[in-house]
Structure formats: structure tokens, C-alpha cells
Amino acid sequence: MQLLVAPLLVALALAGSAMTVRSGSGSSIGRIDEDGTVRNASGSSEGRIEAGGTVRDRSGSTIGRIDANGTIRGSSGSTVSRVDEDGTLRDASGSAVGRLDGCTVRNRSGSSTGRFDGCTTADLHTMAAYLVFFTPLHHR
Fold this sequence. Notes:
Elements: H1 2-14, E1 19-23, E2 28-32, E3 37-40, E4 45-49, E5 54-57, E6 62-66, E7 71-74, E8 79-83, E9 88-91, E10 96-101, E11 104-107, E12 112-117, H2 124-133
Antiparallel strand pairs: 1-2, 1-12, 2-3, 3-4, 4-5, 5-6, 6-7, 7-8, 8-9, 9-10, 10-11, 11-12
């Protein structure tokens, strides 16, 4: 039974609402559709965050995944980031690099650097995956 619960929890956490992604100045820089399709400001598909946690680029290649516990892995399976239940964003070594404060993206000093319009608490993993794999708000 436990083997069925974990994938279901990931699917529920990643099956969220459509969100418009905004920069710190409020400009629209992209969108995440209800099906997980990530779009740039022009509406072109940049990739997809699937309900099972797999993250794909625009050509369909796997570029990473987000686990049910908030661990974000690169295509090789190594940990590249993490989002805690309280929204704290961590780098691969576990250092806090920012925070998802509801729908607001904050840097490590607490300043707002962006926002996800239309998000819900169920969208935490999707927002974190977007920040790691797709956004210009996140400096890789």
C-alpha cells in the first residue's frame, strides 16, 4: 500500500493550477499550464513538469525530477536542490538560497524576486522545479 501512496502524493502535489510567473518588477516572464507545460513570455513551450515529478525540456528529454520529499535531482540523479515543506529553497549542499513564501519568491535576504500568480499550497514542488530548471530568476 505504501508503494502506491508516494507516487499519488507526488502526482497530487504536481497537479496544480495554471500559474503566471512574474519577475520582481511584475513583468510576466512565463507560465505553467495546468498540465505542467512550461511556457516562456511569448507562449512557446520550454518543457514540462510532469505529474510524476519528471521534468523535461522542450524536446522531451529528461532534465531532472522532483521527489515527493522535495529533493530536486538533475538528469544524472544527483541532488541539485531541495524545497522544504516550509518553502525554504536549498542548494545541493543544503544551504538556504531562498524561499517560496506562499506565491512570492524571495532571495536569501528575504527580498522579493518574483511571484507565481494563481498558485496554491499544492503547487510548492512545481514552483521549486520551475525555479531550478526553467527560470531566469534562479542563477545556475
